[in-house]
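Sample pair:
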Amino acid sequence: MTATMTDTPPPAAPKADSPGTGSGRSLGRILTILAAGLALVAIVRIITGADQLTSEGQISAALGLAVPIGLAGLAGLWSERSGVVNIGLEGMMILGTFGAGWIGWQTNPWLGLLCGIGFGVLGGLVHAIATVTFGVDHIVSGVAVNLLALGATQYLAKLFFSDGKAADKGGNPKQSPPVDSLPNFDIPGLSDALHSVEKHHWFVISDIAGILGGLVTDLSVVTILAVVLFIGSWWVLWRTSFGLRLRSCGENPIAAESLGVNVYRYKYVAVAISGGLAGLGGAFLALVTSHTYLENQTGGRGYIGLAAMIFGNWRPGGLAMGAGLFGYSDALQLRNGGETVHALLLLLFVLLVGLAGWKLYKKAMWQGLTSAVVAVLVLVWYLTTDEVPSDFVGATPYVVTLLVLSLSAQRLRMPKADGMRYRKGQGK
């Protein structure tokens, strides 16, 4: 992502990835990393006694908090793969929360969900008109969408929720009346069995049971829809000719146009889908998390979703892991956060020691020594305290966002024409 706007470079640019291009990491390597990480967490859990680290409740809460972040990140992925930077994700989520709450309380939550998506699409089209048709700087347009969405929803909430039938049912200028719940469900038999295994606190086995239990217990239908959208987005963008053309618009729109691709059309479609996904994330907050529209309900999740997308290197798999990480850190403040975050300090110490050793092995002396010093400070913090202050627990998601982006910055590869101005006819 780039904060500056330049004209699209001449067509000497690189080719877009082919549909069969992989992520560069074998399945075996990924599974090995996951197994090592799980074993390390299990060891920390046993040493510290912080059973909440991998409990069913912690994972379930993390999943619920990760879904809107993941949908916002997926929205950003669709837009930026077409070459349009979308800083306006927060505003599109705000529109989604209002649309879901406004229609949801008057009709039913299913229509509210559709309206939330529709409001998000509307925000996406505004951003597409500004950036694609009129060539407005993508950052400026995104910020404008955020401001317009916030102001418009505040005005409409005062207009529709502050009197009449809405006020009688609990509405006020800052929130809508309550909305009926969307269906939640467990997997019969499996949820109870996993919970039983988790209660034994066995090494690794109970940790796996707790993680799996959190993923199959009290699931919202929107969570299932989000999983389907992640898989579907990967398939469409990396396994179809449509996806290849769309990604070529984000890599080299001039070359794409010379091959007959209608670049404007693909950019419009991508940004509209982006808005719809962000609106769905906002609708999740209004219909699943709180069952009502609330002012400032998104709480910066659109920006965190953008960070998750960058962490995931503009790919759905990495984005899902980033959203899960941010959701997990956000859930800590809901479930005995002070003690759990204190246990994570020991985990952070081990990771920093490993990072220091790796950097020193690679002859990166300054980075290695810095990591070692920070590791010592974290260990001292852990040994001299019993619990992390609640103020720090509340800031954990944002600290994690900064740390993840700083550590992953060196391996990022965004679409080459992302954020660049494109004018129709440049390929002729």
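The longest strand covers residues 184-185.
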